[in-house]
């Protein structure tokens, strides 16, 4: 199961400051800051959208949204975009090919399902 | 027909038995192919809406309907979508029919508190003179009036109407057409007499046991234990038995135990348990001798929505040890000896009966074949699985035998189509009420009823 998406995912997660009193075990200031930076990066990698893959650009998302709203291919609720594309293909409605390529390229991205 | 070869050559039952009793081998099974894969559900996700099935139905049947429209009204007529209609212009529109019925049971009206309605008792027919027809395509809908029989048609049918739009926004229909018979299948039938026995509505587990003797007689005839040698040699020509639904009776469906207190119902078991045990024993006798296809029906322990999935083999431990038992879906499609069978347990026909003025089950059966769809009222008034990819109830090929179970009486008709289609339409009667089953001869597509009755209480002999 994918992690549920939160609205705060678009902001980098920052580790909360421990508070005024320093916990035991942290000796020096410099070492503290390095640890903080490492932890921040680890948190980002845990996010569903890994930074190694390019995030989908807004033009692609706009194209996908237009595909959803075009009435020729039938209703869009309750099925994934890929299922809708394949259904339109089987019915002979000739959906545009680049949409399928984009959907397969960003398969891991939860923005792709609808 | 069935027992004609028996009479002249048979040794009568009044003669002493022959020294060495003859054995009659059953005709071997050749060429069985189960074609009901579209009706078998893999994943079952009910989180979808039913708009998908209507969209796919329209998109799937539109090309065929356009061809029919061109061939009927000429190649030069204009096919328009509802959004492109112009007032007064004669054109043809393809769409889904929706019948607005006042008496149609609506769950929202029942639970609405402001109406304070008592739930409507089930009526035999829900039609009224004030019903209206509306045609819907992908985007818009329009009211229909004119040369179209409002009472006869049902919601969910895909049809093409020819006419023009009036000034008041309604569409005046001059003519309409359906998808017509699907393209024919090649005929590979057997050259010798082969019979298939169709029975439905065994109704086990009912309060009265009158039909049990008839059921046992049926089993005895098929397994060749009844009659003289002539009848037994005829019974050897039965290659298959298809039980088309309602193996259990409606009495097994009572859910009184749910409302009673737990201490009163502790030792009782559901009526269907005993009935299924009886069914298992009957099927065991049949399966040792002949291949049997068991289709579930309205009162059988399987899912309610169409397509009904096969009964689970754990319920029939004795009979499922034999590989001659096949538990199949409802609707069921198969190639038996080169003859394509397609049929349902009757829920689709009885649902159309409730919402249409057509009274004759055979007429409704023929109408569904001409409309190109097994069950147009699903999912509106008949439960249906929310398909999204394709509608498996659309008829793409013309079967050779098209049957429906649980009809009030036996009727059959051979329909000839324009493109050389030959379809035998059979309404299989309810066995628990009529004690009649059907025998279909695969060689020449003829059908005859066979009735089993013991001496009833009103018979004096």
TrEMBL record, chain A:
One of its GO terms (molecular function) is DNA-directed DNA polymerase activity. GO terms for biological process: DNA synthesis involved in DNA repair; DNA-templated DNA replication. Residues 1-58, 92-114 are annotated as: Disordered. GO terms for cellular component: delta DNA polymerase complex. Residues 1-12, 32-48, 102-114 have a biased composition (Basic and acidic residues). InterPro entries: DNA_pol_delta_4. It comes from the Eukaryota. Residues 13-31 have a biased composition (Basic residues). This is DPOD4 polymerase. It comes from Alaudala cheleensis. The gene is Pold4.
TrEMBL record, chain B:
GO terms for biological process: DNA repair; DNA strand elongation involved in DNA replication. The keyword DNA damage applies. It comes from the Eukaryota. CDD domains: MPP_PolD2_C (cd07387). InterPro entries: DNA_pol_a/d/e_bsu, DNA_pol_D_N, DNA_pol_delta/II_ssu, PolD2_C. Keywords: DNA damage, DNA excision, DNA repair, DNA replication, Nucleus. The keyword Nucleus applies. Residues 1-21 are annotated as: Disordered. Residues 196-411 form the DNA polymerase alpha/delta/epsilon subunit B domain. GO terms for molecular function: DNA binding. Transmembrane segments: none annotated. Pfam families: DNA_pol_D_N, DNA_pol_E_B. Belongs to the DNA polymerase delta/II small subunit family. This is DNA polymerase delta subunit 2. It comes from Alaudala cheleensis (Asian short-toed lark). The lineage of its organism: Eukaryota, Metazoa, Chordata, Craniata, Vertebrata.
